[in-house]
Automatic annotation (TrEMBL), chains A, B:
The gene is thiL. GO terms for molecular function: ATP binding; magnesium ion binding; thiamine-phosphate kinase activity. SUPFAM superfamilies: PurM C-terminal domain-like, PurM N-terminal domain-like. NCBIfam families: thiL. Belongs to the thiamine-monophosphate kinase family. This is Thiamine-monophosphate kinase. Mg(2+) 1 binds at residues 44, 119. PANTHER family: THIAMINE-MONOPHOSPHATE KINASE. It is an enzyme of class 2 (transferase). Pfam families: AIRS, AIRS_C. Keywords: ATP-binding, Kinase, Magnesium, Metal-binding, Nucleotide-binding, Thiamine biosynthesis, Transferase.
């Protein structure tokens, strides 16, 4: 499959937008940013074996490659518009590419994102995406603008993606991949059963996998929070690590209530409390939003949560200082078993 | 070297621009496109062993990763403004990163390009860059607008980068890398000598390597050609392949004069005519511009060449049909020994 056949296949499937003056097929795309808007640009890369397991379905890889980028736009309260895609593939596999595009373009269509250009190269499987969105001047949510006494909130639930990864990399991981049905005993180890797919443990694992493989970029709530929240970040490296970036950029500290961290019923069912807490506090790949807002905004945020159908949970408070402190139910300080996921140095 | 240390190192070295509202360090960059301009976006990836030899110096990799992207802006007659960089590295090597940035940021400074964001990940060595530029509506040079009877022009000389690659991958390649001094006999094979570095053959090879490792994006002449040229493309995959894209997009054919293709004195010195012609017609990585313009524009183009200090050579004519035909000095049709470089399927 020569590169230009591949480009034609991609071009035939992309969404049209009026602000795309010239899309795929020339040396560069020509795009029209609406008058009075700022351009918002983010770029993220996924490498096989680092950012997704080797066994991940190509459609899930496609979805996730765009989702992690849209998540960055969500955290800025930006409206998505365009993307470019660079796809490095080890060989010719038209069926793989079509499946990849199924996932990538399904998410693009949900958010009316036009794929306007990029590159296809030979190399180890790697996907780089650059996303472009718009924001009105002064409306973008930043990391550096959290204020002391702000509430700290998160969207959705925490630790689901990390829970799926933990189950996949447990000793029983191979059984997990072959037949995703298992239960976790009190020690945290997994006992797998070749159970019926309707087994509750099976569907719980499947729902965790969905968080890992098909994260939901929080575009709607990100847009709704502009003007209400003071600061925001998306949680890619784990709550503590990412909230730490907000604190460092804002020159503040944070105090979290461990018991307030939202957990899915699946995570509760599959992991004992101690391991679950670690997954929620330090696990990566959730792509939820963590944001801060003054206490006066609580009612507004509850209304936004209802309107956007996204759970929003108040998990703590911005304080003076520079540390992110977590308080257990008994008021003592809680420390996670290990630091959050970091790309460099942690593999 | 954790990712965030690396990001701080990069941030400390980047150029500032007034139109960068928020650069490196948040979830996304905030950028201001000038009123009345269209945004021009291109994205290209370089993978080790595919787009540059394993032995390439990190500063050259940095330069080239930005150069191949700026070349796309040049071919659109766009003014460069911003870029994002995604860098996948197999391990922690601060010295490598600093050298890479030396090359990348030296070229960025030449063209006042601000690095505004991106990603650093663990993985096989791979560099993705997205570049952003501006163009006035209607002034961009496209592939699809070549007209029958247009002259066909190229900037610079052709085949130098491919010549360097050919020497590196000849049987004598290891000698070449160790001591780049050699001569090519009439059969096209290379006889290497452990000669003095001032040996003419040595400096000729070094100059070819410079074309391969440090290509010059033709930004200045690209901008100058807006309003004069009808169509343009940059030559990354080889003249015949890339001119073929212009012809396909414009619904025209092309007739080239083989003897008119510009060659450097180094290429003439190191390769016999037959092999040199093949390198000029089909070799990739030149990053020169190929453009078409009406015959009435000849004087204007000569003036642009003088003003921008870039050789411009008229090499043929756009004709009806769909083929790119090359005529040898005796008027017979010339066929290259093999098709131009194609990423997919040709490795």
């Amino acid at each position: 499959m020569p590169e230009f056949d591949l480009i034609d296949r991609i071009r035939a499937r992309v969404l049209q937008r009026d602000d795309v003056v010239l899309g795929i097929g020339d040396d560069a795309a020509l795009l029209q940013v609406p008058a009075g808007r700022q351009l918002v640009v983010a770029m993220d890369t996924l490498n096989v074996g680092v950012h997704f397991p080797h066994a991940t379905a190509p459609a899930d890889i496609g979805w996730k490659a765009l989702a992690v980028n849209l998540s960055d736009l969500a955290a800025m309260a930006a409206e998505p518009a365009w993307c470019t895609l660079s796809l490095s593939l080890p060989g010719d596999d038209p069926a793989w590419v079509e499946s990849f595009l199924d996932g990538f373009l399904a998410l693009a269509a949900q958010h009316r994102v036009a794929l306007v250009g990029g590159d296809t190269t030979r190399g180890p499987l790697s996907i780089s995406v650059t996303v472009h969105g718009f924001v009105e001047p002064g409306r973008a949510l930043r990391r550096a603008t959290a204020c002391v006494d702000d509430d700290i909130w998160v969207s959705g639930t925490l630790g689901d993606a990390a829970g799926a990864l933990a189950l996949m990399s447990d000793d029983a991981g191979s059984a997990c991949r072959a037949s995703p049905a298992g239960v976790v005993d009190a020690s945290g180890s997994v006992a797998w059963t070749d159970s019926d797919p309707r087994d509750p443990a099976h569907s719980a694992y499947a729902r965790l996998r969905l968080h890992l493989d098909r994260p939901t970029p929080r575009i709607g709530i990100g847009l709704a929070l502009a003007g209400t929240a003071n600061a925001a970040i998306d949680i890619s490296d784990g709550l503590l690590a990412d909230l730490g970036h907000v604190c460092a950029a804002s020159g503040v500290g944070a105090q979290l209530q461990l018991d307030a961290l939202p957990a899915s019923s699946e995570l509760r069912a599959l992991f004992p409390d101690a391991r679950r807490h670690a997954l929620q506090a330090s696990g990566g790949d959730d792509y939820e939003l963590c944001f801060t807002a003054p206490a006066t905004a609580r009612h507004a945020i509850e209304q936004i949560a209802i309107a956007t159908h996204v759970l929003c949970t108040r998990i703590g408070r911005i304080v003076t200082g520079s540390d992110v402190q977590v308080l257990a139910g008994d008021g003592t300080s809680w420390t996670p078993p290990r630091a959050g996921y970091v790309h460099f140095g942690s593999e």
